Amino acid sequence: MNRLCEESETYRNHIPLLITEAICAVACMPAFAMLMYIFFTRKQRPITSSMHFNFRLLLSNIWVVLMLQLGFTIFSNAYLLYFQIFDTEYCSNVFYTWQCSVLRWPLLWTVPAMIFIHGAAFVERLMATRKSRNYEHRGKRVALVAMIVLWLITITINSYVFSVPDMFEKLPYCLATFQKNQLKIKKFLHLLLPLELLITFGDICLWWVNRQTQKKTVYSDYSLSKSFQQSENTITSKLVLQISLLHSGFYIIYLVSTSAYRAVSSYDEHPMTFIVVVMNIHNIVVLGLTVCIIVYLWSLRVMDDKRKIREMNQGSKKNTEMYFMLLYTQLK
């Protein structure tokens, strides 16, 4: 116990670790604030309300995942900073494994969750653009079933990868990775990298195919259903492609960086240095999320402005036609 207390006090007095905790918490705040803005202003955007239920459900799940990741990052870092700075009693900075799991696991659980949702978004766009009739026929069941399956897979895989045999073991510092699950996490991250690359490649191919098909398509039997589906696919595809590429870029950099560092270093060799580097690498994800949210809000605003201009032009055209029609009636 004395050795554990001494080790915990070493962590408490390690200035780079304290600074990293503060940086991680502050870095999440802009993205967290923008997520709250999206939630409270969601009804003020006609563009999103016109999207298909499946795509809106997908966006809602992405919002939940991001809130979990950013919220727990801010809370866990602030919580640990408080104990390290204000609770100065000797050996008070010792935690149980289950406490660290509650504080830290959501940060890493959301990493594979975002990749799986990225895959779900690709499947949804694939069905909506390439199998539109089947997509319309199945309706809301597509997204509901996909989200249930996605969360079951995420919870099952994460429970296995991050599990540890003893949840009541005492630790000198809270981490999401422990000595007994480091190897599983390392292998899991190695599997996520090619999966993310494959989904990104699929996004690019689907965008190119849809663009080529749209140029060659001539509707011989026009209908309101086809018109709405084409308009909805255009809007959502514009959102999906650019945000997916941004998301993939940052996630690939993160996965490559953390996998490379975990391959050449370990917690056992230099524990405090290992923690500081891993936490700073995770800020790549936070930066990527912030940029993606900014692009998402900017894209919605641009599309909404274009819609307003189009409506104004149509309204002006109708007023002009009505004016000349009335003038013609008077002259007649």
TrEMBL record:
Membrane-spanning ranges: 15-40, 61-82, 102-122, 142-162, 188-209, 239-261, 273-298
Membrane topology: Multi-pass membrane protein
Gene Ontology cellular-component annotations: membrane
Subcellular location: Membrane
Keywords per UniProt: Membrane, Transmembrane, Transmembrane helix
Primary localization class, coarse: membrane
UniProt-recorded Gene Ontology molecular function terms: olfactory receptor activity
Protein name (record): (pine wood nematode) hypothetical protein
